[in-house]
Task: structure prediction
Amino acid sequence: MNHRERRGSPDCLIRIMSAASMLVTLVPCQKIPTSETSRVLRIHAILTLFVLCFPSHLSADDPIEVGMRRELFVDDHLLESLSSGVALQVQQPVPRDVVLVTGEPWEGNTCAYYTVFQDGDLYRMYYRGSHSVNQKSVHEEVTCYAESTNGIVWTKPKLGLFDWDGSKDNNIVLRGIGTHCFVAFRDENPNCLAEARYKGIARGRPVGKKGLYIYQSPDAIHWSLIKDEPVITEGFFDSQNLAFWDPVSKKYVCYYRTFVDNVRSIMMTTSDDYVNWTESALLKYGDAPVQHLYTNAIRPYPDAPHLRIGFPTRFSPETQQVEPLFMSSRDGLNFHRFDEAIIPRTAPKERDGNRSNYMANGLLKLPDLPEEWSVYATEGYYSGPNSRLRRFVYRMDGFVALSGSGEVLTKPFTFIGDSMKLNYKCSEGGFIQVELCDQSGQPIEGLAGNDCQLTGDATNQNVSWMSGQTLGKLSGTPVRLRFILKNAELFALQFGK
Result:
């Protein structure tokens, strides 16, 4: 059996079953009845003996192939063990200033479902214009547009596309079908046609049929339906449903809302052409508690696109309050979700009311802030004549940290390159020791932890040892990392040349 075949893998099991079948014909069994049932029992016994006799081939999984990918400590994917003083701790972004106030007549106090994305030197924003009195809409919903050159100061251009009370001097970019929760994105598919460089997706109702309609635009301003009928119909859709082109799977991906046992839930489907979609599947969250999840804000993490990160909004039916959470996935369906709110209702300002704390769909790196990620969240929903959007800031990779004081040992992995960089932060008097080990966990000569101690705060710190030894000779060899933390936070690592 090839040493790379894992226990439980199809090839491994086929080989074992084949060997077992041969052994069944060889093992004397005159005293055992030759019925099919006894034959199965004999195979089971032989398989057990086979596993016990050859543990070296079956007990250990292959090393994780890290290569030169940036790996964030957002889950336990790389982690073998943590001592009691260290834990994965979800981080809260730092609040900054309000960037948008919705004071126009076609906007109002229930503007929502914001989407932001970068498009070259320009940042684009789409959101629902809506106003309510006593939680009842007083005018039709429209889709509005804003733009920015720095992600902080946003303007509302007078687009001249749609009439509102006798004037086209407004920033309305869409009316009619889809305006309840329109989401746009720039299509990075290299085969995308110029007339469909920008794509959109939105729920049909209250105008149109039940389901998700799809749109295209050559310039992100003038939109048209790709089909007159919805292309995804299994679900409920009364939320911010979104889509994007995934650079890893080379497919379009859509995440959208449904209900399961009266609980708001999220489904995923994929497509090769943005028109024909696969059968949808429900997201899974391991042992996380069952909770109502309203919006999802899922996307590939730009610096590590093999990871998908999401900011789902937890909804409380009893109070109608919402709070954004953080989650991540490596396959798009199974997510590691943290239960602590990343933007709590106590954050500024007026976000503790009915539906007043949605996270926008988007993650922006601003031109003058290359080591930060900007996210946006709503406030003041229902509470006044207008609602607002506030910017919050994460450090680079700073969604979750290995945090505290103690020891961390990784699983075996392979890398490519001759150097390693870390994103970390140490409190005053704190440090991180870095030790490279062989597959069994023994320190490699010249790369021990007491020869490498990091202090301070860095997002991309090159790691070196007192021996001066580089990592090139270990490239492609299974290794482990051991970190000793004292009052420190570790966010990410990356190998390279």
Observations:
- The first strand starts at residue 64 and ends at 67.
- The radius of gyration is 27 Å.
